[in-house]
Amino acid sequence: MKKIRIASIIFLVFISAAMVGCRSRFLTADTMPWVGSTPLLFKDGFSFESGVWQTHEDKLSFSGYQDEKYRLWVDVPYYQYISVPGLNFRNVKVFTSAEKQSGPDNNLFGLLCRFQDNMNYYAFIVGSDGYYGIYRVVDGEKSLIGQQNLDFSENINQGNQANDLMAICQEDQLVFFVNDVRLIQVQDDALAFGDVGFIAGNFSETGVDILFDNFIVTKP
After folding, report:
1. Over its length of 220 residues, how does the chain's per-residue pLDDT go in tens digits?
2. How many other CB atoms are found less than 10 A from the CB of residue 78?
3. For residues 206 and 103, what is the distance between their CA atoms, to the nearest angstrom?
4. Structural domains of the chain ordered from first start
5. Rounded distance, CA 133 to CA 156, Å?
6. Percent helix, strand, coil in the chain (nearest 5)?
């Protein structure tokens, strides 16, 4: 089983590497003819370093593997740290389990879809204080979609407790589930394709430290 898993990741890395330099709606991995009806597009349990994810460490940030999970830590106020595997999709369902390891509860972390660059992406976020939202960044301008402010939900586990996060990006529909509960569904057609990944960030208080596990991408 391990050999099959490694081979599948290498295959996806190979085709995504070819796409990254010329990423477009016509080179989305979920629409390639050889994918067929297979629902699973990408999976990583972080039990070994596949080389897909960014690894970096300095005095103010860390991204990399820890305890068979993927960790993002950042110690800069009002800053969001992003990591993506270099894939390209159009319509996807993205899942992970995320928990705060340390840092303030007033934070943000979650999933990305249709990430084209740091100036264009969708983010599905929760905070360890129970707030959530979907926002977009288009040409560098950030705005919540369908919300005036982040909303609160009792379905979000607060503090250091883990939360299961699932984002669906299908055509112009963006749906966010937390712990199997649909919290928000909105429409937006600004971005049609791009990468998937993780995000973690601070507000005024710094030190957000998030562990992600079981990253799974399927067809919606």
Report:
1. 322 333 333 333 333 433 444 455 556 777 766 566 679 999 999 999 988 999 999 999 999 999 999 999 999 999 999 999 999 999 999 999 999 999 999 999 999 999 999 999 999 999 999 999 999 999 999 999 999 999 999 999 999 999 999 999 999 999 999 999 999 999 999 999 999 999 999 999 999 999 999 999 999 9
2. 9
3. 7
4. 2-218 (2.60.120.560)
5. 12
6. 10, 50, 40
Would the pTM count as exceeding 0.70? Answer: yes
Torsion of CA 153, 62, 135, 46, to 10 degrees: -70
- Look-up: residue for tokens 């909303």? 151
Cβ neighbour number for residue 36 with a 10 Å cutoff: 6
For residues 61 and 113, what is the distance between their CA atoms, to the nearest angstrom?
Answer: 22
Q: Does residue 153 contact residue 178 with C-beta atoms inside 8 Å?
A: yes
Instruction: Report which residue type is found at 44.
Output: D
Distant-in-sequence, close-in-space partners of 172: CB < 8 Å, separation ≥ 6: 187, 188, 189
Residue 157, class by beta-carbon neighbours within 10 Å (0-12 exposed, 13-18 middle, 19+ buried)?
A: middle
